[in-house]
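CATEGORY: protein folding

GOAL: derive structure tokens
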Amino acid sequence: MVVADLHLHTTNSDGTLTIETLASAAHAADLDAVAVTDHDRPHPSIDEPISDLDGITLVHGIELRVETADQRLDLLGYGLSRTADLIALTDGLQQNRIERAREIVGRVEARLGVSLDVAYERGVGRPHIARAIAASSAPYDYQDAFDELIGDDCPCYVPREIPEFETGRAVLNDACAVVGLAHPFRYDDPATALEYTERLDAVEIPYPYDRAVDTTAAAEAASEFDLLVTGGSDAHDDQLGKAGLDSDQYDQFLSALQ
């Protein structure tokens, strides 16, 4: 039984949940704990690494994309405190996100002859642009926008700044109690991705992949490198608890966090 969903996003990045709606979504899923892991930025309304939200344990976290020699990976930091280095890194990434969004929107508008309603603010990303495309007069839905316009290698795609693995790992290591690898089987080369867990504290194993996945390799990495197990739904909506930790896994995680 899932008691802790440790991977979700709010309107602070590209999710739909707010702090005000998060507790009810967690209660609806019968959860004891959740972690807010917004992309590339701490949540401005969460002040403590661990706090209580209407009877739900709320863990402040972050999901940070990093670059390796092989591929891009996502790191999950938990029990976050705002350090100077973390703020400097995430502020720079957010400014780049805004500049990138403006450039992508400009390309889309020029290509389609439409005007898109996008708020250029911290947290803006391609999902916001895809939603704006779907809401416009252009003949594209949300997924079409990614597949044909703004996805990687598509005509309106613009890359964004991404820190190197060691830079991101070091900053998160100073700011967070636990740093782990997110969804290892979403990468093009999961085996190589799992090699990086030797320098981390945790690996995400329970996760709602959109295909059948054998997670044995992640469990073996957790055993070999003495890693904590994390897990979550990666929710960008209000449907929590699709994946996460059982009570024993959560107790081990919480002990490390504290």
Summary: The mean pLDDT is 97. Residues 89-150 form one domain.
